[in-house]
Design a protein that fits this description.
Elements lengths: L2 H12 L6 H12 L5 H13 L3 E8 L7 E7 L1 H18 L5
Antiparallel strand pairs: 1-2
């Protein structure tokens, strides 16, 4: 799993496991200080869902969205396991390294 996918999964978790794309983008930007495009977030969300790391539920449709419903994402067990594996690997690799 790549760095950006990791950030997306962590953002969804931080947003109480019920987040839509624009909230995910804002959370990543707020916490990392780096600019993130909408396209990058939605591409990552789709990719993570195909991997089984995320699932979504549709919210109510709203007039301001042209009648479209928002997709609210949640991290699934496989996503949590992938995050744990990534954290373990990074911890092992950082052991003994002085930045």
């Amino acid at each position: 799993m790549g760095e950006f996918e990791t950030l997306v999964l962590l953002a969804v978790l931080r947003l109480d496991n019920s987040a839509y794309g624009m909230e995910v983008r804002a959370e990543i930007e707020k916490r990392t200080g780096r600019a993130v495009s909408y396209g990058a977030v939605y591409t990552a969300l789709d990719r993570l869902e195909r991997k089984g790391f995320l699932s979504h539920a549709l919210g109510e449709s709203t007039p301001e969205r042209g009648g479209r419903a928002r997709k609210y994402f949640r991290v699934e067990t496989a996503g949590r396991e992938a995050l744990r594996a990534t954290r373990r690997a990074l911890t092992v690799m950082w052991t003994g390294v002085t930045p």
